[in-house]
Amino acid sequence: MKGLTKNLDLSVLEELTIEANPGDLDADKIAVLKNSAVNRVSLGVQTFDDKMLKKIGRSHLEKDIYENIDRLKLAGFDNISIDLIYALPGQTMEQVKENVAKAIGLDIPHMSLYSLILENHTVFMNRMRRGKLPLPKEEVEAEMFEYIIAELERAGFEHYEISNFSKPGFESRHNLMYWDNAEYYGIGAGASGYVNGVRYKNHGPIRHYLNAVEEGNARITEEHLSQKEQMEEEMFLGLRKKSGVSMARFEEKFGRSFDGLYGEIVKDLVQQGLMQIEGDRVRMTKRGLFLGDTVAERFILE
């Protein structure tokens, strides 16, 4: 934090988020955060079920969630977010309902809810390939998704992005920047950035990063995006938002006709009930949001 304040003017800072796991933030660490420029805390809760937490390899317990939230509120933090995962192995609809109720009961302004994503070379993926991972069926996962949206909206949250819900004014500013396909700097070991159409990633861990900085180039990879790729990403990312994509902004940014590129695709998706047009904007319906990746694939340009 001292390094940041030494080299950056934080007087115009809108949001500085720190991510932590429940149980990581004791009173001393929270005091340090409160005396810094940090104004938002995101906790990786995942679930309130102690047995499920152990099953997915998390070290915290349900009690740690409440203790950390209480400590943060007592210190004066009001912009608190949690991450939850649903469609976990063996998870039932009743367990999802219980998780949602407990999350709402925390009285915090932001939540991110993700369905379990299986990555290659992980324990869960290996179990699934051996037929030993009892994941909820797709129709049950869809029912969970619809229930989560309905309950959180009833509790005053806006479903402003596929996986994100907030009370008014508490939308995640840095994530909105990603979904708007805006540019951003990645600073530090392992950080990613996107500037002038170049997506890059820095060296990590810290010792490799420091050595690379001394040698004059902190970046380990660079990807130069073509206009075609930038337009595709504008759609992939923008359609994650409830507000969708502005056709006028798209044309101004890329100098291409939106209708010429995507008019027939949008028309077809509207007929399928997956998208809708509202004035200048195209956005996904609730059904479209659940099938987000399937819809996004339609915007790959040949």
From TrEMBL:
InterPro entries: Coproporphyrinogen-III_oxidase (IPR034505), Elp3/MiaA/NifB-like_rSAM (IPR006638), HemN_C (IPR010723), HemW-like (IPR004559), rSAM (IPR007197), rSAM_horseshoe (IPR023404), rSAM_sf (IPR058240). GO terms for cellular component: cytoplasm. It is found in: Cytoplasm. Residues 1-158 form the Radical SAM core domain. It holds the Pfam family HemN_C. The keyword Metal-binding applies. SUPFAM superfamilies: Radical SAM enzymes (SSF102114). The keyword S-adenosyl-L-methionine applies. GO terms for molecular function: 4 iron, 4 sulfur cluster binding; coproporphyrinogen oxidase activity; metal ion binding. Keywords: 4Fe-4S, Chaperone, Cytoplasm, Heme, Iron, Iron-sulfur, Metal-binding, Oxidoreductase, S-adenosyl-L-methionine. GO terms for biological process: porphyrin-containing compound biosynthetic process. Probably acts as a heme chaperone, transferring heme to an unknown acceptor. Binds one molecule of heme per monomer, possibly covalently. Binds 1 [4Fe-4S] cluster. The cluster is coordinated with 3 cysteines and an exchangeable S-adenosyl-L-methionine. NCBIfam families: hemN_rel. Belongs to the anaerobic coproporphyrinogen-III oxidase family. HemW subfamily. This is Heme chaperone HemW. It comes from Streptococcus mitis.
